[in-house]
Amino acid sequence: METVELLDKLENLTELKFEYAQNQVIPKESSEPVVQEIINYILSDKFDFLLFQQNFFEQMASGSHSHIELIRQLNIMVVQQINLSEYAHYVESIKIRSVLFGAIRIPNLIIQLVNVPITPNGISENPHTTIEVLSKSTASKDRNQEKKEYQAIPSLQEYILVSQNEHKIEQCLRNGKTDWILKVYDNEDDTCILTVGVKIKLNNLYQNIKLEEKQLIIKELDQKVYRLI
Questions:
Q1: How many structural domains are present in the chain?
Q2: Kind of pairing, strands 95-98 and 123-124?
Q3: What is the CATH number of the domain that holds 155?
Q4: pTM (predicted TM-score)
Q5: Do residue 98 and residue 163 come from a single domain?
Q6: For residue 54, which of 192, 210, 220, 221 sits 20 to 30 Å off, Cα-Cα?
Q7: Taking a C-beta distance cutoff of 8 angstroms, is the pair 87, 77 a contact?
Q8: β partners of residue 104
């Protein structure tokens, strides 16, 4: 089974989102890969969705209220300011592929040129801007491995990290073929200006956000799978 086909099948069966990196399937809201036994169980005739929900759903789908609200606010800002005749944007609905790393990811938001096609299986191989809202369970992944994967995509011009624990945006800007510049916005009056012309004012973005000190930590799943099979 092809990787994209596998991810689509897992998502259809579980109603969760999955990524692929370093030859492993990883829930979107986690840095811990899904063990093969669980993948086999989901794909098997024994799979029980209600039982899966009771045992795994909350562990694989963090998505705190702050996380969801920040994505919503970012989407509103993009829709209100972006030049729709030049750029298209997608909210957690399109995957991107980093060919060099063999990785498939799902950014919270993607912006790309409107004339750049999406593959029939929903993959963007030429994104212009990606935006990720950090959570405790994904911050390390977003700042390290995922950033390397994104920066290896030739078309990508910027990679945005938005904190949900403090007023802070990190903007990684391409400077030539291989160099990148990091800009940090951490004052409430700061404004992050994207290369597509969208202005993100921190005081507006975080106006109705309750900053969270603690996020759900993804637990090890190995111990439960044997009760399901």
A1: 2
A2: parallel
A3: 3.90.1570.10
A4: 0.84
A5: yes
A6: 210
A7: no
A8: 20, 97
Q: CA-based diameter of the chain, in Å?
A: 55
96 and 198 in a common domain: yes
Helices and strands (H, E) in the chain, number of each type: 9, 13
pLDDT digits (tens, 9 = 90+) for 75-118: 999 999 999 999 999 998 899 999 889 999 999 999 999 999 89
- Same-domain check for residues 14 and 77: no
Question: What stretches of 65-203 adopt beta strand conformation (E)?
Answer: 87-91, 95-98, 103-105, 109-113, 123-124, 129-133, 158-162, 169-175, 179-185, 191-193, 199-201
What is the C-alpha separation between 217 and 68, in angstroms, rounded? 17
* Residue scoring higher pLDDT (110 or 178): 110
Nearest alpha-carbon partner for 174 in 191, 189, 194: 194
Tokens of 162: 């938005």
Q: Which residues contact 197 (CB under 8 A, 6 or more apart)?
A: 81, 82, 83
Same domain (yes/no): 110, 192:
yes
Q: How far apart are CA 200 and CA 192, in angstroms?
A: 5
Mean pLDDT of the chain: 86
Supply the range of the domain harboring residue 129.
65-205
DSSP H/E element including 27 = strand 24-27
Residues 6 or more apart whose Cβ sits within 8 Å of residue 24:
33, 34
Residue 210 lies in a domain: no
Determine how β-strand 18-21 pairs with β-strand 24-27.
antiparallel
